[in-house]
Structures are given as C-alpha cells and as structure tokens.
Amino acid sequence: MSEFEWPADPEDNRQYCRLEQLNPGWWRQAAELVSRKDLLFPHVTIAADGIELPWWGKKVRVLPSSRRIIALEESRQLGYQEGLVILGLLKYASEHQSLPPEQGLVTAGHLRGGATFFRGPHVMASVLIARQFAGDGQAFLNRGLALGGRPASYGEFGIEFTWFPGLSWIVALWEEDEEFEARAEYIFDRNIEAMFALDVVWALGNVAARKMID
After folding, report:
1. How far apart are CA 107 and CA 191, in angstroms?
2. Residue span of the structural domain in which 110 resides
C-alpha cells in the first residue's frame, strides 16, 4: 500500500471505539422508535426496551437507554464500527418503510464522491482481506462460507454475504501471482448511497474485513 500503513485491526482507532461516542442524534432516534412501538420496517421489531434486527445472519438488540448493542446469541457487545452501521440503518428505518430499489452493482469508487473519499485513511479494508488470503483463495472461500456467505461469481474467488435481509455485500478476491499482488474488492448495490453517507459504507467495509480475518 505504498506509504500508507493500514492498521492490523479496523477498530484500532482509539478515538472512535465506543458506542456511546456515536452520533447522539441517532441514539435519540432509536429511543423514539422504541417509544413509538409502531415501526413498520421489514425485519426490524420493537422488543421490550430495545430494537431487534438481523445483522450478518444473527439477531442483535439495540438498547438506546444504555447506548449498547448486544449480539443476542453470543451475549457480546458490538463495537463502534458495527454500531455506526446499525444506527445508520435504524435512522433510515425511522424515515422509510422499505429498502430503496435496487440500482445495480458497483464498487466503492463508483459511489457519488467515492473516488475521492475512499483513499488514504479511508481506503476500503478489503486490502486487509487481500493481504490475509493473498495466496490461498480456497481458505478465503472456506472462511466466507463458515460466516454464512455463499459463493459468488466475481473475481477468482467470490463470496456474498447478506448482512441485512435484502442487502448484500460481495467480496471478490484475486490471488497474487508472479506479476500482480493479490487484490480484493467490495461489490454492492448502488442503492446503499440512498441509505448511508460514505463514512458508514466505509465502516461496513471494516466490519466485513474484521469478520473475514479474525
């Protein structure tokens, strides 16, 4: 990656690592959803003092009163990057009744402003996946399948995740050879830019990388 040294862990930035540091307005919107109890967004439900939704094939509960997000099966509190995407999704859910229509698959650089944003410290964390699986595409596939992904016909090796029902995240890998370094790309539907700002898309890429390389 030339002069830019990417951290080994996408959560390495200690300045932004706790859920309570997330946008206070988004936490307030989540609290309002709990109090309304009439949320009409697919797959998102109000449960007791929180909101439950699927996240990478598992249920999580958002607890606005204590500013926590819990992975229910693992009794584990989620980190900042996952929280950023989940609260962004709930913000969208509070203002809409369904996902935006599909617009076709793109990479990050083809989003509005993406060619400028996804550089330097905001380079997509797919570079970590390429580094981890540079010479072992089969291990890449095995890891993706173990996480609940399914094979996808992109790159030399491709895996597709449904991180929320109706929303996919594809990771395409090209192994290294004598001429080229290994490369990995994220591919997703352009409708994501109707839901999230670019920093949230970037965070979702960090989440995908962390799951693949943990």
Report:
1. 12
2. 105-213
